[in-house]
Amino acid sequence: NAGWYLVVVKSAVVGRDIKYTIEFNAPKVYLMGKTIGGWDIKDENAFTVPADGSGFFISPKLIATDEVRMCVKLADVDWWKTEFIVLADGKISYRGTGGDQERYIVNKDKSVYLNFMTGKGKYE
Asked: What count of other Cβ atoms lies within 10 Å of the Cβ of residue 35?
């Protein structure tokens, strides 16, 4: 079915074979940290999902002025290993295997807008 999905591919070498599984999960993106009041993944901190590819994932309003941190949740993976932010130029930057990213302080009562089709986002 058409729509947004979080696709997770896991692979392992077993003998001479590569075994893999593919999961199609709900596309849940979460705010984390002081801007949303804590470090737990909660449904109330989830972004709304756009109806089509041209729309934005939109966060709840920030409740405090601080560093914005976002992630997706994967089973058995610490949230910060799936972390990403929006840079000053509007690009979505994924943490990947690197260390902490440059941080951006955003004022409370703003929301985060993410467009994964264009790789861009904004704080408004």
From this structure: 25
